[in-house]
Structures are given as C-alpha cells and as structure tokens.
Amino acid sequence: MKAAVYYSHQDIRIEELPMPKLDEDEVLVETKACGVCGSDLMDWYLKGRAPLVLGHEPAGVIAEKGSKVRDFKVGDRVFVHHHVACLTCHYCKHGDYTLCEQFHNTNIKPGGFAEYFKVPFKNLQLDTLMLPQPVTFEEATLIEPVGCCLRAIRKSNIQTGDSVAVIGAGTTGIIHVGLSKIFGAAKTIVSDLFDFRLTVAKKFGADVLVNPEREDLDSIVKAETGGVGVDVAVVTAPSLDAYKSGMRICRKGGRLIVFAPTAPGKYLEVSPKELFFSEVQIIPSYSTSHLETREALDLIASGRLNVKVLITHRFRLVDTAKAFKTALGSKESLKVIVLDK
C-alpha cells in the first residue's frame, strides 16, 4: 500500500509499505480522509521520531476485520481516535485520561496518511465511532480537533454571559469561538494577524475582531469589558507574545487556557506575587479523550458546529507534501485534508 512517510517538513515521500497484519480482535480501515493537525507541523516535536507516517485525524471504511470483532462489520464508516486511555490507572480515576500511560502508547498503524491503517483492539473497543450518514468523511476529520477544543472549553468553566478572548484564529481557534457561543459566552473577542481567518471567525459567532498589526488588543479588551478584562482567554498560537497578551487581558480571577505548546526552551515569566493577588488561573489542556470525541461527533452531526466551512484545501495522498506546504505557508488556509482520491 502507499503511504506518505515523513522525514522532515521538506521531505515527505510516497512509499510502498506492507499492508498491516491483523490480530483476531483488530480491524483494517481504508482511509478516506485525514486532516493535517497543527502538531503535524511542529518539526521539533517530530524530528526525533522520523521517519514515520503521520495522520491522527482519520476517517474511513472498515475493509477487513478479525474473527473476534463483533461490534463492527466490513463496510462500516468510522472515525478512529489514535490514543485511548486505560480507564483504570490513577490518572484515569481522576479524569485525567490524556495523562494515562496507555494513552500515549496506543496508536493506529502506521498512521492516517496511508491507504490503509490498522486499529488495535483497545482503540477499537473504546474510541472507534460509527459515522451517521449525514456526516461526511471530510467532516469526520474534524472530530478529533473539536474534541480537543471541547476538553479545553470545559476546563475553562465558561459560564453563561462570560466574555472570552481567543488569541489565534487558526482551525482550533475558530472552533473555540463556535464552542464559546454554544457554551453561553456573551462576547467573544478574536485576535489574529490574518484577516482571512478573522472573517471565518465572524461566521462562527465572533463579536469583536482584532488584527494586532493594526489595533491594540489590550485597549480593545478593556473597552469591551468595562475595564475588567475577559473571563477566559484561550491561546491557540504557539507564541510567547500570545501568552503574554493572554495574561494581560485576563480579569482578576480569570482563566488562561494553554492550548498550544511553544518550542523547547521558550519560557513564560510569571510573578508569583502578581499571580497570588490577581488569582488568574493558568489551565493547560492537551488532546482529547473518548468522552469529548462522542460529543464532538454529536455537534457535527446535528449541524450545531458547521465544520465543513473550516476545510479550505484538499489534496490526494500522493500530494501529501503539497498539503503540508500549504498548511505551513498559506495565509488563506485553515483545515487542510488529505483524501484517498
């Protein structure tokens, strides 16, 4: 089978790999669509593991199943989550599923940027979801990113009537905008350097659009919140400047959501004195669990979150290198997906 093998962002090769061999409790999925995630674009995060096949936002059709598989059949349309928790360890018992050791050790094989991938039993058992007919394969590639955003939004404890700022209006930033409205935010302020992204954010319910190259975010937040600051600031841009802005615009007792990692060696200076007296909460949110993926699918299937608007570019598997180049360099790209044909 063909697969796109990642050596670096400048070196992605289409290679022939052996078809994955199934155990009796596993299934083989023919990939129909797979999204390019922001983490796929972090070279520092990937280079130590290359070469490898990326792609963890896949949707497809079950092409083969092991003899002990009962709940799925050949031909089923599915979304598959690449990581699943054990549900029994200390972290899982506390609801911290993404910190579970098994979560990090479970993966689809070889990855979503391949003609086929194998779903191990644990992934099949806990977080392989049947796609209802209205949901397309393209839309299903957004289940995982929507799930990640849902987890962050829930951790932020948004209340009805809250003010929210989203710094960084890429795909996940815009999803946060839509979710903030679903969860009751009265005013959502969005900041991004690209007007194209701000325009899409408006479609998802953004109330105030800010391009920090032309406008001062701090002053606008102050004016829009009566000088108080926002209740929640979600930072989806992997930038220290973005995090500094997020800290400045949070109200006393507000919540800063850490949604994007910076490169290694980058540190945000925080004064314990200022943190103590302001009571600003810094809340990281990494990945998503089996709980949020189901909720994400429901939001997409019901039409409450119109994710198809976020898909700006489509490429065939043989053009995966072009897909990455577009995701990295285009000022008018949001979700880039790779299709089977």
Short description:
With 341 residues, the chain is of the alpha/beta class. The chain has 13 helices and 16 strands.
Description:
The model has no long low-confidence stretch (mean pLDDT 97). α6 packs across α7 and α6 crosses α12 (290-302). The protein folds into 2 domains: 2-131 and 306-339, Medium-chain alcohol dehydrogenases, catalytic domain (Quinone Oxidoreductase, Chain A, domain 1); 157-284, 3-Layer(aba) Sandwich (Rossmann fold). It is of the alpha/beta class and 341 residues long. The radius of gyration is 20 Å and the shape is globular. The protein is built from 13 helices and 16 strands. It has helices at 43-46, 90-93, 101-105, 121-127, 137-140, 143-156, 171-182, 195-203, 217-224, 240-249, 272-278, 290-302, 320-329; strands at residues 2-8, 11-16, 27-35, 52-53, 58-65, 77-80, 116-119, 128-130, 163-167, 187-191, 208-210, 230-235, 250-258, 281-284, 311-316, 335-339. The longest helix has 14 residues, at 143-156. Strands 3, 5, 6, 7, 8, 15 and 16 form a 7-stranded mixed β-sheet that branches. The protein has a 6-stranded parallel β-sheet with strand order 11-10-9-12-13-14, sandwiched between helices.
The beta-strand count equals 16
CATH superfamily of the largest domain: Medium-chain alcohol dehydrogenases, catalytic domain
Principal-axis shape = globular
Low-confidence stretches: none
Rg to the nearest angstrom?
A: 20 Å
